[in-house]
Amino acid sequence: xxxxxxxxxxxxxxxxxxxxxxxxxxxxxxxxxxxxxxxxxxxxxxxxxxxxxxxxxxxxxxxxxxxxxxxxxxxxxxxxxxxxxxxxxxxx
Length: 92
Known about the structure:
This protein has helices at 5-11, 13-26, 41-51, 57-72, 78-91. It is mostly helical. InterPro entries: Apc36109-like_dom_sf.
């Protein structure tokens, strides 16, 4: 089942913006740097849909890492995902 990214963006605009900005900044797979438009929409959507159930930076980092590992395999180390989580938390 494919996610409806536009619906998720509209339903959670602040969460979407926070997650998208942090992930694009870190660019853990190099897709943004390669010029891919909306490179991480699938991952952002999966994260945004579950962010409400996450109450710590460590748990958010684990969520982000699990989404990326499921899609791309082992990409980057835990610090990459911890930094993404911190960037999201700082923008809340």
